[in-house]
Specification:
Elements lengths: L3 E7 L15 H5 L7 H17 L4 E4 L7 H6 L8 H8 L10 E4 L9 E5 L6 H4 L2 H11 L6 E3 L15 E4 L8 E6 L12 H10 L7 E5 L2 H6 L8 E4 L2 E5 L6 H11 L4 E5 L6 H7 L5 E4 L5 E6 H4 L2 H12 L4 E7 L2 H4 L9 E6 L12 H14 L12 H17 L7
Parallel strand pairs: 1-2, 4-5, 7-8, 10-11, 13-14
Antiparallel strand pairs: 1-15, 3-4, 6-7, 9-10, 12-13
This protein binds N~2~-(3-carboxypropanoyl)-L-arginine (SUG).
The site of N~2~-(3-carboxypropanoyl)-L-arginine has 22 residues, from loops.
């Protein structure tokens, strides 16, 4: 068994659009009604995956879900002209943000020695709550080997669960036993807290985690109110490193001590408010980065290009590199189409620690496959979508045909 971290990026679906559906997500609200570019968005995603493969990392992907969701439109008796937001919900390409697809507990952490995955119910937002049954179907295909994986049902509503976006894992190396940290929010600010503590605790129990190696931490309500709708907007972990904003958690020092009690090797890299304000961190998505262990053992931080454009953030990154700490490289990537909906490099990927040989090979990327995927995207994905196009039957057919062409090229027709 050769356990390693595999990043499964969501391929951006052909209906990618800006409908402003996510209350509390500032980028989504501020781009509401603007023109989206699904083809460019999907190609940006493939370029990010390619760049990570070029670093020597194993890369996987998950497919867009079927949109528009005709069953949802039917169940809600939606009138496409009158109910614009409901129509847009059924068209949403939000499954691209696979950090919200599931919570993953790798085999070394679980009682039965299997990797456990619980699809996130995403109940707080209608356009996201429709995802999990199709996500589960896809995870059951990708991780079908019962000797190595268990894919659960979602946690029952009403306990909101947002998956890996509110979950961090600390370990000496990815294949070693880990300490899992669940970060939940409490309602009471002007924006919804999406992750419920009881959902986190239920996930930990059903995954068979050792209670002594689980930590529960509260998000800072000020961060949620400032637009950090998920913990991964203000913190990211990899192996022994926690990279976090100084205002990420309700009780910052308490959070560090609780994690340290379970994982004494913890190394915190904290960005103070004076260097990068919470607002600037949320605007640039500095923490919505992929913190990756490169094959040589050093760490790289893959950040959105918006970080390079911010004098404060870029100056801080330069200082951090000069300290010769565990993070040795900062790599900007262009994911601007996703960023405009509040999704940075970390939102676009689900981390699974597994032996790649135990995963359905159709979900793993190589150069030839990346090229085939790009060809389908370039040929079939709409160049742009205007808000008034949402609900158009002709566009619906184009979106469906585009997805089906991609599934055909990847021999994944069972997902149609
Ligand atoms: O759930 N945006 C997503 C962004 C998810 C980011 N994921 C992580 N932080 N892991 C969300 O808010 C916008 C859709 C719209 O407005 O059309 C949206 O769903």
């Amino acid at each position: 068994m050769m356990l390693r971290e595999i990043n499964f990026d969501g391929i951006v679906g052909p209906s990618h659009n800006y409908a402003g559906l996510s209350l509390g997500n500032i980028a989504s609200a501020s781009h509401k009604g603007t023109v989206s570019h699904p083809r460019a968005a999907a190609l940006q995603g493939i370029a990010k995956m390619r760049a990570n493969m070029a670093l020597g990392l194993t890369q996987g992907f998950l497919l867009p879900l079927p949109r528009p969701n005709e069953a949802l439109l039917r169940d809600l008796a939606v009138d496409a002209q009158a109910d614009r937001a409901l129509t847009a919900a059924a068209w949403s390409a939000s499954s691209m943000w696979t950090a919200n697809a599931a919570t993953v507990s790798p085999a070394p952490d679980t009682a039965d020695g299997r990797c456990h995955l619980t699809p996130a119910n995403l109940v707080t937002m209608l356009h996201r709550a429709q995802e999990w049954p199709d996500t589960r179907a896809q995870l059951r295909l990708a991780f079908a080997d019962p000797a190595h994986f268990t894919v659960h049902d979602a946690i029952p509503a009403s306990f909101g669960d947002e998956g890996a976006a509110n979950h961090m894992r600390f370990c000496e190396q990815h294949g070693a036993p880990g300490v899992e940290v669940f970060v939940y929010g409490r309602s009471g600010t002007r924006f919804p807290a999406r992750q419920h503590e009881q959902a986190s605790r239920a996930v930990a129990r059903r995954h068979g985690l050792d209670p002594g190696r689980c930590v529960y931490v509260e998000q800072n309500p000020e961060a949620i109110a400032a637009g950090a709708f998920h913990n991964d907007v203000v913190a990211v972990a990899n192996e022994r490193v926690l990279f976090a904003h100084a205002r990420a958690f309700a009780d910052q020092e308490g959070a560090y001590s609780a994690i340290r009690a379970a994982f004494p090797a913890l190394e915190v890299i904290e960005v103070p408010e004076e260097a990068v304000s919470l607002e600037e961190a949320i605007r640039t998505y500095l923490f919505n980065a992929q913190l990756l262990t490169l094959p040589e053992g050093e760490m790289a931080l893959v950040v959105p290009e918006e970080c390079r454009d911010s004098p404060a953030v870029w100056a801080w990154c330069g200082q951090m590199l000069a300290t010769n700490g565990p993070i040795r490289r900062v790599i900007p990537v262009n994911v601007r189409e996703s960023m405009a909906n509040g999704g940075g490099p970390a939102c676009l990927r689900l981390r699974v620690v597994a032996d790649p040989h135990t995963v359905d090979q159709r979900f793993l990327l190589d150069e030839a496959k990346a090229q085939r995927i790009e060809e389908v995207i370039s040929e079939m994905w709409p160049e742009h979508i205007e808000p008034r196009d949402i609900g158009d039957p002709g566009l619906a057919r184009q979106v469906e045909a585009a997805r089906e062409a991609l599934l055909g090229v990847l021999a994944l027709e069972e997902l149609i």
